[in-house]
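Final report, Chapter 2: Outcomes

The project's central promise was a pipeline that accepts a single protein chain and returns its three-dimensional structure in a standardized token representation, suitable for archiving and comparison. That pipeline is now operational. To close this chapter, we reproduce one record exactly as it appears in the project archive, with the input sequence first and the structure output second.
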Amino acid sequence: MVVFAEVHLPSCTIAFGHTQTAQLFNNSARPADNHTVIIEFLVDDVDKEFERLRTIVFEWVQEPTTMPWGNRSILFRDPDGNLVNLFTPVTEEAIKRFSEPITGTQAAAR
């Protein structure tokens, strides 16, 4: 079972995941090791971003992959070691989820 939730705010979305969710990111988020935060950005085309960034990113954690909740994503570490996830909703359900208006602190299970 994947446990994942998001809190949508006007300027950002904060996501929380269970340790089982970390397994889907090749266990790159490590609890109690200051590697548990993933900075995420919604992009128009994650595959194009991968091609654009592939020569300048030094530590790829995950090449383009469609996740169980319907987002296609790439994951890498920035120069400070932070995990960065660029994603694009690709399944009908994920596209719908991101096209619906979200209010203040409404959380959505992913």
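Archive annotation: The first strand starts at residue 4 and ends at 8.
This record, like all others produced under the grant, will remain available to the consortium after the project formally closes.
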